C-alpha cells in the first residue's frame, strides 16, 4: 500500500517539483494539496498547483488556505513581490489550469480530514509557511495526536536565505512556526536549508530530465533552470545548480537515505528582532533540558537525491 501524504504548499517552482514527485512516486499516494500565502499570493499558489496536476494528467484535489500570516496582517509580502520573484514568478510557465479548486477552505479540510479515520495514516508534508498548519492546530488541537508523522521543509541552522538567521518558510510566519514546533506533533522530520543546499540540482541534471521527455520531467527541468538563473540574480551565486528544497522533503519519505547528519533535538522559533526573527533555534547541546521535538537533517546525499528525483519524474507517461 502506498503511503498517503498531504502536501501543504506555496507553489512555487520547487513546490511544483515536490507535488510532481508526490503524485508520481509509486510508494506515495497524494491525497490532496493545500495552499498558503508564501512564494506568491495564495491564489497564485492554488492556480499553480492546479496547473501542475493538469500538466502531468493526475487529478489531485487542491484546497486554498490562508492568505496572510497567523498574527501579522501585512508581514511579509509574498515572494512574488520581491527580487525572489526571479526564482518563482507568479505563474508557473506551463499551460493555464482547466481543473478547479475545491470549495472547502484548506484549514477546514485539514481539520476534517485528520479527525476522520483516514487521517491517522496520512503523513503531513508542509513545504511552505506554517500558517495553515498552525491555524488547524489552533482550531482543533486534537489533530496533533492523529497526524502520524510530519516531513517539513523549513528552517536553517548554519544557513539562512531571507536573512543570515532565517529561512523563508519559517520567517514568513514565525508565530505559526512556533505554534507548530510547540504543539506536541510526533515524528517530525525537518528538512532545513542545511540539507537542501547539499542536494543541488544542476544544469546537467536538467538536460537529463529533458531527455526523458515526460511532461513532469520537462516541467521540472524548466522550473529548475529558472531556479538556477534566479539564484544568480538574487544571491549572485553562479554555480550552475540550485536547491529544489521541497522535493527533498517529499523524497525523504520514500528514501530516508537522501538525508544525512540527522540530529534529534528540541527546536523553537525566534519571533522577534530585526536580525533574528524567523530563526529556527536548535538546542544541539540540550541547554534547555527539553525533550526533542524534531529530527533535523543537517546534510543530504546529493547523488542519491538527484537519481531518485529523475527516476520519479520519468514515471509520468
Ligand atoms: C522554501 O521557501 C520557499 O521559497 C521554497 O518554496 C521553499 O519551500 C525555501 O526557503
Ligand atoms: Ca515552498
Topology:
Layout: E1 3-9, H1 13-24, E2 28-35, H2 42-56, E3 62-64, H3 106-115, E4 122-126, H4 131-139, E5 150-153, H5 168-172, H6 174-181, E6 188-191, H7 193-196, E7 200-202, H8 203-212, H9 215-235, E8 241-243, H10 245-254, E9 259-265, E10 267-269, E11 280-282, E12 294-300, H11 302-313
Parallel strand pairs: 1-2, 1-4, 2-3, 5-6, 6-12
Antiparallel strand pairs: 7-8, 9-12, 10-11
The structure holds beta-D-ribofuranose and calcium ion.
Beta-D-ribofuranose is lined by residues 10, 12, 14-15, 39, 79, 127-128, 153, 161, 167-169, 245-246.
3D architecture notes:
With 317 residues, the chain is an alpha/beta fold. It has a single domain (3-313), classed as Alpha-Beta Complex (Inosine-uridine Nucleoside N-ribohydrolase, Chain A), CATH 3.90.245.10. It is built from eleven helices and twelve strands. It has helices spanning 13-24, 42-56, 106-115, 131-139, 168-172, 174-181, 193-196, 203-212, 215-235, 245-254, 302-313; strands spanning 3-9, 28-35, 62-64, 122-126, 150-153, 188-191, 200-202, 241-243, 259-265, 267-269, 280-282, 294-300. A four-stranded parallel β-sheet has the order 3-2-1-4, with helices on both faces. It has a four-stranded mixed β-sheet with strand order 5-6-12-9. Helix 1 links the parallel strand 1 (3-9) and strand 2. It is globular and about 50 Å long. Calcium ion is lined by residues 9-10, 12, 14-15, 38-39, 127-128, 246.
Amino acid at each position: 500500500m502506498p503511503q498517503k501524504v498531504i502536501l501543504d504548499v506555496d507553489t512555487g517552482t520547487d513546490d511544483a517539483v515536490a507535488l510532481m514527485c508526490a503524485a508520481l512516486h509509486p510508494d506515495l499516494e497524494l491525497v490532496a494539496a493545500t495552499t498558503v500565502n508564501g512564494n506568491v499570493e495564495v491564489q497564485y499558489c492554488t492556480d499553480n498547483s492546479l496547473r501542475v496536476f493538469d500538466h502531468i494528467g493526475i487529478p489531485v484535489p487542491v484546497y486554498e488556505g490562508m492568505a496572510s500570516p497567523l498574527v501579522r496582517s501585512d508581514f511579509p509580502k509574498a515572494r512574488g513581490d520581491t527580487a525572489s520573484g526571479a526564482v518563482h514568478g507568479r505563474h508557473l510557465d506551463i499551460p493555464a489550469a482547466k481543473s478547479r479548486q475545491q470549495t472547502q477552505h484548506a484549514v477546514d479540510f485539514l481539520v476534517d480530514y485528520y479527525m476522520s479515520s483516514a487521517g491517522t495514516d496520512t503523513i503531513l508534508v508542509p513545504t511552505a509557511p506554517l500558517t495553515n498548519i498552525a491555524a488547524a492546530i489552533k482550531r482543533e488541537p486534537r489533530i496533533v495526536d492523529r497526524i502520524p508523522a510530519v516531513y517539513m521543509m523549513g528552517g536553517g541552522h548554519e544557513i539562512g536565505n531571507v536573512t543570515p538567521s532565517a529561512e523563508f518558510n519559517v520567517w514568513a510566519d514565525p508565530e505559526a512556526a512556533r505554534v507548530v514546533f510547540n504543539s506536541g506533533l510526533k515524528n517530525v522530520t525537518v528538512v532545513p536549508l542545511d540539507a537542501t543546499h547539499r542536494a543541488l540540482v544542476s544544469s546537467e541534471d536538467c538536460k537529463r530530465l529533458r531527455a526523458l521527455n515526460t511532461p513532469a520531467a520537462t516541467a521540472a527541468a524548466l522550473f529548475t533552470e529558472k531556479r538556477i538563473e534566479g539564484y544568480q540574480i538574487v544571491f549572485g551565486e553562479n554555480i550552475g545548480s540550485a536547491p529544489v528544497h521541497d522535493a527533498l522533503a517529499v523524497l525523504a519519505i520514500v528514501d530516508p537515505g537522501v538525508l544525512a547528519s540527522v540530529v534529534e533535538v528540541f527546536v523553537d522559533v525566534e519571533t522577534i528582532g530585526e536580525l533574528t526573527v524567523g530563526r529556527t533555534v536548535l538546542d544541539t547541546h540540550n541547554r534547555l533540558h527539553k525533550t526533542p521535538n524534531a529530527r533535523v537533517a543537517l546534510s543530504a546525499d546529493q547523488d542519491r537525491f538527484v537519481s531518485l528525483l529523475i527516476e520519479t519524474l520519468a514515471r509520468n507517461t
